[in-house]
Specification:
By secondary structure, the chain is of the alpha+beta class. The protein contains 3 helices and 7 strands, in the order βαβββαββαβ. Helices cover 30% and strands 34% of the residues. The relative contact order is 0.29.
Length: 122
């Protein structure tokens, strides 16, 4: 069953809740996209075998944003492809929320109280 939910968030609790719902659904190929009104985004996919995979597409990132992305502490174990920065996080939704917040604050330079839309497809 496919379900798409959208909500606006600016809090770690809400970021984690969206990923918790994705994991709880247990649907292969489910995903959640976190996006600003300006179109800056990152996403997580879920599969039963791998858990959550963080995906920060390189398309649309400036050179400065790419440099900032590679300097995020949690991103040390990332895999780089020609189109994305990827990171396997299992089912650690707390880490996913912290990583998402770091991307919006440190890569996209969103200010305190930033708003993003979360689209959950399960």
């Amino acid at each position: 069953m496919e379900s798409v939910k959208e909500f606006r968030t600016d809090h770690l609790k809400h970021l984690k809740a969206a990923m918790d719902e994705l994991v709880a659904a247990g649907v292969d190929d489910g995903f959640v996209i976190f996006e600003t009104a300006e179109g800056k985004f990152c996403q997580f996919t879920y599969s039963r075998g791998l858990g959550l995979t963080f995906d920060l597409p390189r398309m649309g990132l400036s050179e400065e944003e790419r440099k900032r992305a590679t300097n995020i502490e949690a991103m040390e174990a990332r895999t780089e492809t020609s189109i994305s920065y990827l990171l396997q996080i299992g089912v650690d939704t707390r880490m996913g929320a912290v990583l998402t917040d770091a991307v919006f604050r440190k890569v996209f330079l969103c200010s305190e109280g930033y708003q993003i839309q979360a689209t959950l497809d399960i």
